[in-house]
């Protein structure tokens, strides 16, 4: 899994021409608009990118349903 600093770095990368995203835009998502003011700010966009990077690096998402139990054995000689 990536380190916390790698995740923060991925989250903080904004496009050079980033402008706040209004509710009228096709790029707008109410899930990202944390204060529900109809505008996605740079800080909200950064938070969403961090959350996406965290989700993408979560190993539990790679192995099927979360209700499964995985057991492992380790042998040393």
Descriptive overview:
- The chain is mainly alpha-helical and 77 residues long.
- 31% of the residues lie in helices and 5% in strands.
- It contains two helices and two strands.
- A two-stranded antiparallel sheet has the order 1-2.
- It is elongated and about 60 Å long.
Summed up:
The protein is mainly alpha-helical. Helix content is 31%, strand content 5%.
| Beta-strand share of residues | 5-15%
Q: How confident overall, as mean pLDDT? A: 80
Query: Biggest sheet: strands side by side, in what order?
Result: 1-2
Overall 3D geometry? elongated
Instruction: Tell me the total number of β-strands.
Output: 2
Whole-angstrom Rg: 18 Å
Count of DSSP H/I helices: 2
Q: Enumerate the spans where pLDDT stays under 50 for 5 or more consecutive residues.
A: none
Q: What portion of residues is helical?
A: 25-40%
- End-to-end span in angstroms? 28 Å
The main pleated sheet reads as: 2 strands, antiparallel
Structural class: mainly alpha
Q: What's the helix-strand series?
A: HEEH
